[in-house]
Structures are given as C-alpha cells and as structure tokens.
Amino acid sequence: MNIRFFALLLLSSLSLCLPSFVLAEPSVNAARKPLDLTQHWVGYVAIAIFSIAYILAMLEEVTELRKSKPMVLAASLIWIAIALIYANGNISETASHSFRTALEGFAELFLFIMVSMAYLNAMEDRGIFENLRIWLLSKSFSYRQLFWITGVMSFWLSSVCNNLTTALLMGAVVMAVGKDNKRFVTTACVNIVVATNAGGSFSPFGDITTLLVWQKGQVPFASFYSLLVPAIVNFALPAALMHYFVPKAQPAASNEKPAMKRGAVTIIVLFLLTIITAVAFENFLDLPPAAGMLMGLTYLKFFSYYLQQTVGKTNEQHSVLKSDAMDMPKLADNQSFDVFEKVAQLEWDTLLFFYGVMMSVAGLSFIGYLNFASEFLYGKIDPTIANILVGIFSAFIDNGTIMYAVLTMDPNISQGQWLLVTLTAGVGGSLLAIGSAAGVGLMGQAKGIYTFSSHLKWMPVILIGYFGSIGAHFLLNSRFF
After folding, report:
1. Which positions ≥6 away from 119 have C-beta within 8 Å?
2. What is the pLDDT of residues 268-300, one digit of tens each?
3. How does residue 14 score in pLDDT terms, banded at 50, 70 and 90?
4. I need a labelling partner for 99 at 20 to 30 A (CA). Which of 52, 127, 185, 244 fits?
5. Helical H runs in 30-91?
6. Per-residue DSSP letters for 99-135?
7. Are 436 and 197 in contact (CB under 8 A)?
8. What's the pLDDT tens digit per position in 3-12?
C-alpha cells in the first residue's frame, strides 16, 4: 500500500511538472521563422480545402448542412497537413506554438460570446423581446413608422446585442405586422440588415469585427464611439431613400397583452453590469474582456439560484399593479429559471463555425498567404483604398473572417485606418444578403419574401450609405490619421 501511495505521489508530482516543460519548450523554438509553403503542395491543398469548406458554409440554406461541419473539418485538415511537414523537419514545436496562439485567441472570443448569448437567451426566456413585439403591435403604427422604428431599434440594440439576435428579433416583429404586405416586409428586412450592421460597427461588443479589434488592442475602447456618426450616416442615408417605397397603409392592431416573467428587469440590469465589468477589466486591470464577462456570468448564476429558491412565491408588488391602467407589462410569476439551460441553448453552430474560420485563417497565415496578401493590400496600394476594398470583400465573405484575416496580417497603419477598416468590414456586409449573419438569418426567417435578389436590387442605395459613412469618418475623425 505504501509503495502504491508513493508511486501515485510521484506520478502526481510529475504531472504537475510536465505542463511547465511542455509550455516552456515552444517558447524557445517559437523564434524560428515559419517555412514559406505558399508554393508547396500543402499550400495549394490548404487553399482548396478552405475554399470548398467556405462554399459549403455559404450554401447552408440549400444543402441544409450546418456551416460548422465543413469549417471545423477544414481547420483540422489544414493543420494536419502543416504538422506533417514540420514533424518531418523536426521543428514541430514551431507549428504547435502557432496553433496554440490562435487557439488562445479563439478561446477569449468564445468565452465572451458565450456569456453574451447566455444573457440574451435569458432575456428571451423572461419574455423581454416578446413583450417588445406585442407593444409595437398594440400602438397602431403605420408601415412607414414601423419601418423607422424597427430600423432605429435595430441600430441601437445591435450595439449591445449581436447583429443576428437583433435581426431575428426585429424580423419577427416585421413578419408579424406585415404578414399581409410583402412589399413592406422586403423593404423593412433590408433596412434591418443595414441598421444592425451599422449599429454594431461603433460598439466594441456590438459585432464580431469590433470585438476582434478591441480584444487585439488595435483600437482603445473609447475610440470606437468616434464611429457613431459615420454609422448613423450608413444607416440613415439608405433608409431615407427607401422610405418612399414603403407603403403608407396601417396594419391591424394586436389585442395581445404583454407579460414578462419574474426577474426580467433584473437580468437586463445584470447584463449592463456585466458589460461594465468587461470594460473595467480591459481598461483598469489590463485583463482580457472575456475574464470580465465570465465574472458577469456569475451575476446571472447567483440570480438564477435566487429565482430557483423562490419559485412559487408571488411578487405582491407587481400583482397589485394594473397593467392596462399603467400601460406597463404584467409580470408572470411562478416561473422557474436555470442559467445552465440558457448556456445549453447557445448558437453552438455559429461558435464552432468561427472556430473553423479562425483556425483555418491562422493556418493559411502560418503557411504564408496572408503575408502575401498584406504586402499587396497595405504595401502596394494606398491603405484607404485597401480598407475600402476589405469592406466590399466582406459582402462576399463573412465580415468576421475578413477582419480576423486583417488582424492576422497586422499592417502598420494609423489608428484612423484601423477605425476605417473596422467600419468598412462591419457595414460592408450589408451590400449583399449573404454578407452578414443578420442577412442570412433573415433569409431563413422570411423565406420567399426576403431573398438574395430582393436585397440585391437595393445594393446601389446601400452603397450610397457605405461611401457616405466613409466620408463622414474622414471629415469627423481626421485627428486619428
């Protein structure tokens, strides 16, 4: 027994020591310059694999194959090919170090989005978004008023929520109020896509592009808000032109009574506190924002515990209020709540898709292709033109992918140019329906009404807003250049 005990103790001690050796070794070899495989069979195979996987991801609505499957497989195959070459040359530590660095970047992004989505799912569970939809339907707004209301709300909501969630929420409202008017639904959906992408472009946590730039440290937190006016221009110009094509009629009012579950308002407050915590971790403690978001998740977990322990207890304060007289929603009580259910309901397909994209792009960068692209975009042509082209490219390729590629290139440009590429990559996805998660989500929600072609006919109008926002940025933010 004593021999077994000491053997176990020895193995435990070795297991504690091993990680330090494993982690320390790559740092010695990490200085080795990666091999240039752009003309090697590995480079050609990696490009082919990534292209095929991305095409399959874009055809998700047609093939009904979840976009995460081909992208995660592509990332795995690309790094397997890279690892084989480096292992044959006895320099596998260099590839291993690069992979771990990319994985660390994804882990921070994943944890940040995970907490954000958990809060959004919790708010949806408490009936906050449904209450908003019912309220809008009860006010007898005209189609033109609803066009602007849903657009403005999409703009501001997407600055704190992700653009997909905001687009689906506002899309549900538009579909509910305009079910008898296809023309209104089509125009309003285009407006929502433009508004959500514009609204997410000026907030550090409003979109995947801004979140990536913020976490990379290229733009300070407060500087993002200098893009507010350009973002407004990007949304307002196309909306003002589309306004005249929206029907003047008025939809039928709804008789539904709004109701929110117990704890709804508290969860909104906790979400705001979580965002403040993440900002404080970054600005004052120099810790990753994801660490602050995880601390914020504990706020929701403790509140979940409170709700579970008080199930069945009636909130007398709210039960005596008459919502009809006060024009306030009733709070439905006796509703259990489990925070881990909200985590389980995350959009895992999207999160794994971003893993596949980020690791694939990291692999292509390690091979040497992004250095080649960087030399062309930021070496041979003007950075302003390069950043405008990046925005246009984001209409064809997911803007998060484009931004991650730019960050991996790490061009030596001014903060004004970093803000420009953040703006263009964020709003450029509005040019086509497939250019952003908001557009893809709405195409699935409003099948046969809001389509690729129905969005395409508004592209010239959206392009006016695109270049208008760029002009506003140069006019108002010249101090950053």
Report:
1. 267, 270, 271, 274, 296, 300, 342
2. 899 889 988 987 887 788 888 889 989 999 999
3. very low
4. 52
5. 41-58, 60-63, 68-88
6. HHHHHHHHHHHHHHHHHHHHHHHHHHHTTHHHHHHHH
7. yes
8. 443 333 333 3
What's the token pair of residue 161? 């929520």
Backbone φ and ψ of 332, nearest 5°: -80, 125
Q: Residues near 396 by Cβ (< 8 Å), separated by ≥ 6?
A: 432, 434, 435
Q: Which amino acid is at 289?
A: P
DSSP codes joined into one string, 446-462: TTTTS-HHHHHTTHHHH
Cβ(257)–Cβ(323) below 8 Å: yes
Instruction: Provide the sign of the torsion angle of the four alpha carbons 41, 44, 47, 52, taken in this order.
Output: negative
Q: Which residue has the tokens 């893009």?
A: 227
H/E element, 261: strand 259-261
Q: Are strands 259-261 and 330-332 parallel, antiparallel or unpaired?
A: parallel
C-alpha separations of 445 from 171, 259, 438 in Å: 7, 24, 10
DSSP string over 374-431: HHIIIIIS-HHHHHHHHHHHTTTS-HHHHHHHHHHH-----HHHHHHHHHHHHHHGGG
